[in-house]
DNA sequence: GTTTAATTGAAAACCGTTGTCAGTTCACTC
DNA sequence: GAGTGAACTGACAACGGTTTTCAATTAAAC
């Protein structure tokens, strides 16, 4: 009748030791180094702990003493909830969680709202290391992370800071392969739908200057890869319309597709820098009665599950693996001959949403 | 040239104070209570901190002293990565993350693999409270959570433990409404696809005894709701085939649908206890050339985004809101007149995958 | 020019562990 | 009966802060 475990915390390691008439060391050992004391004594300690409602050594105090928090921090600048809405982010998180799970480490989602630049949360986080995902390079939170004396891995971003590892994928090469696929199919009039290029809201056409200026390396690489491929095929990039969307959702993809097709009705292929946008584009095409791929080719990037379900032509990146590698990179610290930078391959996946441009023309002539 | 911030941790609050010739209190105040010291002095302290690479007070030490960790722990018994694969779980997490974000709390995913029953992780977690999601009642991790002297909120589970709050949804009522919808459409031959009912792998028919015995309250309620509705309409539940799947994925749904339709070809409606299973069932129907809803009605439960996209008839539960409420329940502790139990409403969403049974007969007779 | 009040800073206690290390007890072995 | 090793103790120093109490300094008031 000493009370439920949820009233207060009366018991500490010391009080338990006193109760039992043993030293604190012994109690501590009962939990942490069972080989240091006899089994019966250990059982006695544990039994007394149960009886007194002692939940075991306080994790925070233990962390302080051992200098290990047992958790990895994850920093995203997008609203935290975004992490769960975007299929690429969830894939990444899944992999990261997997790696953490295997290492017995927790995964702490650091609460940072993109608006109020309250860096405090980063300082408050009791973690052994950070993974930084989808953050622009000049982000104050990111800088706060770098100030913390713990190892850090950044994802999808060239990083020059010493002691910071990196994992990314072959964005440019993947998009280049996709571009080659498109030109091989005979497409010359190609439109591009891309994600946010800057921190400020901007929805609409993005000219080459803006494309170059972007603070999002992933977008730069993907657009750049496409540009390489098209240029190889003799297409003048300056004439390629690029429509940008700030939000990353199917709805945004649909509206971007509408916008682009309205201003450039002669486009035979829509290359999107993400599957989510592409799925939106497909949605728009379906609603507008535009046959895919007969009249319009649509491609994505990422290889999310839903894209696979709808047969989208896309570039698959190993999102989950990327998360896993990020975790491993972080947790295998100390491994002297560990790579500091990992770039994972991407793979062109030809689905049923891309077809020959000639077919499109046939379609037109048949009209 | 004292070194980058990533070499070691030379600077502590004490060393900084010594360097400056002030007391530790002052340095601490500079960070935590700016009103307790003059602005110039504070600036001097902060400047010295920058110079010496002092990243601010150590979060763990601070937590120890203040008895607040600044984070909420999330316990799932499914492999951690499952949390990111299942759309319902991600929705819940999104809401929970939102609540945490607003309260400036971190969200710690506690690493528990379902297999090795290593409760240690629960004890290691430096958190101010726990949210327990999708865990069977007799789970050792769950019990470990209850031992911790911190507030706890469980989700979707009747809980008798004092001091533990609960959030859930009207599973039974929702499914009952769906059942009424089905019987109103004239369906009498109904098959059920349900999720895991026990901790052991089991794929195949689940008789009423097994349905009752399940350690997953959600499944019990949903199946029970359907049973109520069908019984109301005079359908003998004993004759209703229920097929269970251990895995929760579209593939599992597809195979379950195949199994059920093979053994009960006269079924006119397939009621699934989750959208994910229903999406799988739809997939199977499409592959097998079974017209939906003309020849077969398919329904789900949850109201996930993809279900909406495909027009699935389902019961929508406010998953995100549920997560948010869980967070609020936990974080608003101390609010004396706060509810201890929250049950959120569900809503029947009639889509394009359910149709009258008469239509089905017409379809048959037209053959 | 005191007295009084407001500011500011220092000292010390405390948070709950872990780890180390010398030392004691005790049962066994040879 | 000395030697050996296992089991356990006790003291103490971290770990890096926060917070309360109180003294000292300064500014304001009379």
Automatic annotation (TrEMBL), chains A, B:
Q: Tell me which UniProt keywords the record has, alphabetically.
A: DNA-binding, Transcription, Transcription regulation
The cross-references to SMART domains, in alphabetical order and at most eight, read: HTH_LACI
SUPFAM superfamilies under this entry?
Answer: lambda repressor-like DNA-binding domains, Periplasmic binding protein-like I
Q: Which GO terms describe its molecular function?
A: DNA binding
Is Transcription one of the keywords UniProt gives this record?
yes
InterPro entries tied to this protein: HTH_LacI (IPR000843), LacI/GalR-like_sensor (IPR046335), Lambda_DNA-bd_dom_sf (IPR010982), Peripla_BP_I (IPR028082)
Q: Is the keyword Transcription in the record?
A: yes
The segment(s) forming the HTH lacI-type domain are 11-66
Q: Which CDD domains match?
A: HTH_LacI (cd01392), PBP1_LacI-like (cd06279)
Q: Which Pfam families match?
A: Peripla_BP_3
Report the protein name in the record: LacI family DNA-binding transcriptional regulator
Give the lineage: Bacteria, Bacillati, Actinomycetota, Actinomycetes, Pseudonocardiales
């Amino acid at each position: 009748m000493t009370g439920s475990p949820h009233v207060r915390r009366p018991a500490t390691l010391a009080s338990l030791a006193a109760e039992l008439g043993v030293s604190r060391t012994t109690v501590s050992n009962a939990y942490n180094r069972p080989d240091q004391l006899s089994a019966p004594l250990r059982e006695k300690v544990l039994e007394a702990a149960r009886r007194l409602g002692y939940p075991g050594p306080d994790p925070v105090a233990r962390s302080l003493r051992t200098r290990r928090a047992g958790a990895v921090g994850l920093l995203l600048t997008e609203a935290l909830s975004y992490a769960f809405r975007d299929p690429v982010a969830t894939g990444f998180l899944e992999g990261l969680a997997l790696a953490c799970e295997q290492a017995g480490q927790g995964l702490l989602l650091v609460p940072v709202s993109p608006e109020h630049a309250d860096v405090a949360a980063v300082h408050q986080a009791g973690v052994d290391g950070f993974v930084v995902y989808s953050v622009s390079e000049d982000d104050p939170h990111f800088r706060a992370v770098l100030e913390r004396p713990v190892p850090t891995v950044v994802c999808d971003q060239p990083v020059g800071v010493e002691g910071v590892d990196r994992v990314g994928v072959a964005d440019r090469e993947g998009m280049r392969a996709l571009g080659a696929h498109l030109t091989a199919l005979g497409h010359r009039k190609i439109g591009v739908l891309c994600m946010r290029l800057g921190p400020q809201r901007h929805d609409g056409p993005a000219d080459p200057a803006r494309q170059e200026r972007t603070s999002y390396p992933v977008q730069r690489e993907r657009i750049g890869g496409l540009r390489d491929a098209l240029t190889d095929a003799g297409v003048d990039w300056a004439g390629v319309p690029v429509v940008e969307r700030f939000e990353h959702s199917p709805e945004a993809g649909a509206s971007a597709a509408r916008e682009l097709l309205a201003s450039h009705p002669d486009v035979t292929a829509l290359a999107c820098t993400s599957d989510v946008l592409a799925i939106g584009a497909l949605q728009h095409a379906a609603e507008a009665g535009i046959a895919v791929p007969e009249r319009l080719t649509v491609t994505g990037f990422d290889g999310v599950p839903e894209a696979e379900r709808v047969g989208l032509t896309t570039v698959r990146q190993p999102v989950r693996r990327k998360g896993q590698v990020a975790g491993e990179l972080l947790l295998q610290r100390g491994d002297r001959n560990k790579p500091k930078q990992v770039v994972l391959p991407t793979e062109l996946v030809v689905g049923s949403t891309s077809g020959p441009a000639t077919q499109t023309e046939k379609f037109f002539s048949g009209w």
